[in-house]
Specification:
The complex is a heterodimer of chains A (about 725) and B (about 350). With about 725 residues, chain A is an alpha/beta fold. Chain A has 34 helices and 19 strands. The chains are: A alpha/beta (about 725), B mainly alpha (about 350). At the A-B interface, helix 1, helix 17, helix 18, helix 19 and strand 12 of A face helix 2, helix 3, helix 6, helix 7 and helix 8 of B. Chain A: It is found in: Nucleus.
Chain lengths: ~725, ~350
């Protein structure tokens, strides 16, 4: 809290690591809201970014509690407006559109009902369908702001239903004057979306990135493009559609094309002033000086532009016809495209903007078909705008199936700071927080920013409720490790199996195991079958396995929870970096033990990763091994953190790999885990581990009441105001 | 799979004859290599599809899936050889853009055979009017091309340099580690000293080495000039403004626990006022107050004030004659005169 306040005072960025389940969200919200109330001029808005929709909902719940508390204590209505924003898919209340399952389809259909030209057509001809909710919002909603309060997605929908206004556009409109906005990372980080949604958020805002341990990957994903052969074929189709539409329009209504042409001659700036509903197609970041400039003459008329696109697509097709892997810098690509098909850099840079303008002019209402072409135009714009920090990799086949030709062009961003840079520059305070950010010094480096505060917090606990252990060998003293060399070793696999069986016999309720990859999980499980370990395991608990299929996994999860709830006990085998490891909580009896089999390194042979490592080494002096270990350890910590979701919770954390006990790995665990990882628990065998588990579980199973925590990890108001405590707080505040 | 390339004349597909190569000529219609040899045995003939006269020498391997694109690129290259004005040749951007569009229209007309007579006339006119500019521009590269070339060169140079550097550094490190380990074993085997102390000293030595290494790794890289801008003119990072200004980061080490003993200061002068009382004694009046950003990191003006006071008061009671003279006297008494000069 102290640190956060300091960062807010200094209007600087900060990096906070707080253990999971200790009220991170509440803490952040209450301090920032209090600060907003105290200094309404310095701090106008809180933008809270989370990862998934359930997480957004959780934040909204916390906020609601906080607001209720304010109301109770202060005794009056609070003048604070908080709202959540999500995609059209989650907010649409149109009777038929909201039935669609896929986000893209919903977006496309919404666009076809609300685009300005559709509405203009509707004005002339009543048969053209439009969305009544949007019309309602457009007619009345803009004048009446939302009354203060806390709105989560369902509340917005309800409010929309009541007023017959479109909740999505209502929410987007309200962002500009809401005090607290909760939405997904992408609305800020993805330059394509940020331009549309978050443009008008003022500088005096606080941005909080929660669960931000993966923020660098999100940044990179938002700037990368992947082009496959199928996508290009679809592009060719949509180009022909464009061609026919243009020729039709030329015959029937050539005025519109002329109007567009004239506008483009004047400059792009005018072209970007479009109504909010038309912004379904958006362009990746363009520096504003380019936007001021006029569209180059080569792609000014519609036919020329379509021919231009055709050439680009054909050119990329020829590039995909390779027999071996090609890696190239954007500069090399630009030169090659110039010599092969005579395309200059400048028109390429404008292609995304030009395509958006063309589609708008042609009044194509079904956008879903054009997404491949949009992808290609984004690629063209990005490749010609950025020459540093990106690389192009063309792979003729996948590594796993070298005989099947499946060419893919990756345009991958290597520098995570490019996407997040505007965020750091624009807002006075950016708070990056998560349960697992260790080692802290890596984030400022890879995101290239200068935090004023960087701290890792630990927990104050009334009892040692986590038990991290490093198990390095089996009962037969064979070292356990998921190293590549010993991966197939039956002794190692057997030892892993025995460890799991013995832990399953000792630990009640749920156990979650994490493997390094799906492939490894499969090989291990199959050899456990042969060795009879699965049978032994099923004597104690039911067994569930995470697969790559999302539906299957969620079914397994439901049944796992059912088995834990009714006391049967269950084991869930899952994969680090998978769906389970990110964002599914195993609190209390759902996760009494977490086992991490091996260190979850990324697949190091991937060319994209190799390129990124090289870039990090050259630009930021981060050594390959340092980054790989950092990445592996943050994922391991993320997995371990799944079982601890609160102070009354308790869980065993077993790291089953010899390499974890090395100082370079151990020191990269978050402080709150390290604190409990004693030296004596660092090099255990299976038997010792089980002994310690039994003793510890007996201790933890004692009744644990509120009184036990009072005075240590929980304070009553009297205790808080007692002189002793006040002194302590004073000391802390000045001592730092 | 029906997306195999097919020769329109003999209907051979790439599937049946993997060695088949499609060729295109100026008209943009494809033919396979063997058909070309058959039909154009004399060196020239008519295209079997559009009957336009073609020469055999002009057949090229088809690069693109769509032969029309091949044709267009061909025409484009030919036209751009003539129409090679640069932006520098025009007074305004608008005119340049108009020119670009005109070129595009000409190419478009040629590709789709729209109004060939007029178009050809336009080309001829242009050729006559702009002979010298065309000639001049042919010999110089456009600015953009030059920029690209430069970038590529820089990339290449950097790559080779970096690769060498890191390979060497890694090798060196490995060697050193190996050496240190061997040394430790040797010592443990042959020396009579306590094994614990040997191991302890070894640990210290490796820690010291590890500290040095990052510095060494960072040094050579700073020699390489980093471009601080994208070619579009956007700054890359903040590196240009503050170089290497990361905050010092507390590092966790596996050393024996540090035990705090209060330091005893020998001021050799009147005791300076304690840091807590500086405010009351009104010392801050002469000192610049710390700003918010400084305070966030824990700095207060009291610190520097206190330090300045300590510095001012410390050593006031110091009398050099006593200590200095005794030392000098012991060695040489003849320099006493000069010594006095110095001290006074």
């Amino acid at each position: 809290m102290l640190e956060l306040k300091r960062a807010l005072d200094a209007k600087g960025h900060c990096l906070l690591e707080m253990p999971s389940g200790t009220g991170k969200t509440t803490t952040l919200l209450s301090l920032i809201v209090a600060y907003m109330k105290a200094h309404p001029l310095d701090l106008t808005k809180l933008v809270y970014c989370s990862r998934t929709v359930p997480e957004i909902e959780k934040v909204m719940e916390e906020l609601r509690k906080l607001m209720n508390y304010y109301e109770k204590e202060m005794g009056m209505e609070q003048n604070i407006l908080g709202l959540a924003l999500s995609s059209r898919k989650n907010l649409c209340i149109h009777p038929s559109v909201s039935k669609e399952r896929e986000g893209k389809v919903v977006d496309g259909r919404c666009y076809s009902l609300t685009a300005s030209f559709v509405r203009a057509r509707h004005a002339a001809d009543d048969a053209v369908p439009i969305c009544e909710f949007y019309e309602g919002f457009d007619a009345h909603g803009k004048e009446f702001p939302l009354p203060p309060g806390v709105y989560n997605l369902d509340d917005l929908k309800e409010y929309g239903q009541m007023k017959r206004w479109c909740p999505y556009f209502l929410a987007r409109h309200t962002i500009t004057h809401a005090n607290i906005v909760v939405y997904s990372y992408h609305y800020l980080l993805d330059p394509k979306i940020a331009e549309v949604v978050s443009k008008e958020i003022s500088k005096t805002s606080v941005v909080v990135f929660d669960e931000a341990h993966n923020i660098d990957n999100v940044c990179i994903d938002s700037m990368s493009v992947k082009i496959t052969k199928r996508l290009l074929d679809k592009c060719s189709n949509s180009i022909t559609i464009l061609e026919t539409t243009i020729s039709n329009m030329k015959e029937n209504d050539s005025k519109r094309l002329e109007k567009e042409y004239k506008r483009l001659v004047e400059g792009l700036r005018d072209a970007t002033i479009a109504r909010e509903t038309d912004m379904a197609l958006v362009n990746p970041v363009l520096p504003s000086e380019i936007l001021e400039e006029a569209v180059p003459g080569t792609i000014r008329t519609a036919e020329h532009f379509v021919a231009f696109l055709k050439r680009v697509v054909e050119y990329i097709k020829t590039r995909l016809r390779v027999q071996h892997v090609v890696q190239e810098s954007p500069a090399g690509f630009l030169r090659d495209i110039h010599t092969k098909v005579c395309i200059d850099r400048k028109p390429l840079r404008f292609s995304a903007e030009r395509l958006a303008s063309l589609i708008r002019t042609l009044e194509i209402s079904d956008l879903t078909d054009f997404s491949p072409l949009v992808t290609v135009s984004h690629f063209a714009t990005l490749v010609s705008t950025y020459t540093k920090g990106f690389t192009i990799i063309i792979e003729p086949f996948e590594d796993r199936a070298p005989t099947v030709s499946n060419p893919i062009l990756y345009f991958s961003c290597l520098d995570s700071s490019i996407a997040i840079k505007p965020v750091f520059n624009r807002f006075q305070t950016v708070v990056i927080t998560s349960g697992t950010l260790s080692p802290l010094d890596m984030y400022p480096k890879i995101l290239d920013f200068h935090p004023v505060i960087m701290t890792s917090f630990t927990m104050t606990l009334a009892r040692p409720c986590i038990l991290p252990m490093i198990v390095s060998k089996g009962n037969d003293q064979v070292a356990m490790s998921s190293r590549y060399e010993t991966r197939e070793d039956t002794a190692v696999i057997r030892n892993y199996g025995n460890l799991l069986v013995e832990v399953a016999a000792a630990v009640p309720d749920g156990i979650v195991c994490f493997f390094t990859s799906y492939l490894y999980l499969e090989t291990i499980v199959s050899s456990w079958y042969d060795q009879g370990i699965i049978d032994q395991l099923q004597r104690h608990k039911l067994l569930f396995i995470e697969t790559q299929d999302a539906a299957e996994t969620s079914l397994a999860l439901i049944n796992y929870i059912k088995a834990c709830d009714n006391g049967r006990g269950a084991v869930l085998l899952s994969v680090a970096r998978g769906k389970v490891s990110e964002g599914i909580d195993f609190d209390h009896h759902l996760g009494r033990a977490v086992l991490m089999f091996g260190i979850p390194y990324v697949y190091t042979q991937s060319r994209i990763l190799r390129a990124r490592l090289e870039y990090l080494r050259d630009q930021f002096q981060i050594r390959e091994n340092d980054f790989l270990t950092f990445d592996a350890m943050r994922h391991a910590a993320q997995c371990l953190g799944r079982c601890m979701r609160g102070k009354t919770d308790y869980g065993i954390m077993i790291l089953a790999d010899k390499r974890f006990s090395r100082a370079d790995k151990r020191s990269k665990l978050p402080k709150w885990i390290q604190e409990h990882l004693k030296d004596t628990n660092c090099n255990l065998s299976t038997e010792e581990c089980v002994q310690i588990c039994k003793r510890w579980l007996r201790q933890m199973a004692q009744p644990f009441s509120r009184e036990d925590q009072l005075g240590i990890s929980l304070l009553t108001l009297e205790q808080l105001q007692s002189e002793e405590m006040q002194k302590k707080i004073q000391q802390r505040a000045q001592g730092v | 799979m029906d997306d195999y390339q097919t020769c329109p004349k003999c209907k051979t597909t790439k599937y049946r004859n993997p060695a088949m190569v499609l060729m295109v000529n100026a008209c943009g219609h494809a033919l396979c290599e063997s058909c070309v040899e058959l039909l154009f045995a004399k060196g020239s003939g008519a295209c079997p599809e559009c009957k336009c006269p073609l020469r055999r020498n002009n057949f090229r391997v088809q690069l693109f899936e769509d032969p029309a694109v091949d044709k267009e690129v061909d025409i484009r290259k030919r036209i751009l050889k003539e129409f090679n004005k640069r932006q520098e040749d025009f007074p305004t951007l608008r005119e340049y853009n108009d020119y670009l569009e005109e070129v595009e229209t000409i190419i478009f007309n040629l590709v789709f055979d729209i109004d060939p007579t007029n178009t050809n006339k336009m080309i001829d006119n242009y050729k006559k009017e702009n002979k010298d500019i065309t000639q001049k521009n042919r010999n110089r590269q456009s600015q953009e091309e030059m920029e690209l070339e430069e970038l590529l060169e820089a990339e290449k140079a950097q790559q080779s340099e970096k690769a060498n550097l890191y390979v060497n550094a890694e090798l060196e490190e490995k060697k050193q580690k190996h050496k240190a380990r061997e040394k430790l074993i040797d010592e443990l085997m042959f020396s009579d000293a306590d094994a614990k102390s040997i191991v302890a000293s070894h640990v210290q030595a490796t820690a010291a080495l590890a500290k040095e290494q990052p510095k060494a790794a960072a040094q050579p890289s700073s020699g390489v000039v980093k471009s601080s801008k994208f070619s579009s003119g956007i700054q890359i990072g903040l590196r240009g403004q503050h170089t290497n200004s990361f905050l010092p980061i507390p590092k966790q080490e596996d050393l024996p626990l540090y035990r705090y003993t209060a330091p005893v200061f020998d001021y050799d002068g009147p005791p300076p006022p304690p840091i807590e009382k500086l405010g009351k004694l009104n010392y801050f009046a002469n000192i610049r107050a710390a700003n918010i950003a400084e305070r966030a990191g824990g700095y207060t003006e009291a610190m520097s004030c206190c330090r300045a006071l300590q510095e001012a008061l410390g050593g006031l009671f110091y009398s050099p004659q006593l200590t200095h003279k005794t030392a000098v006297l012991a060695t040489n008494s003849s320099t006493q005169d000069t010594d006095d000069m110095e001290t006074t």
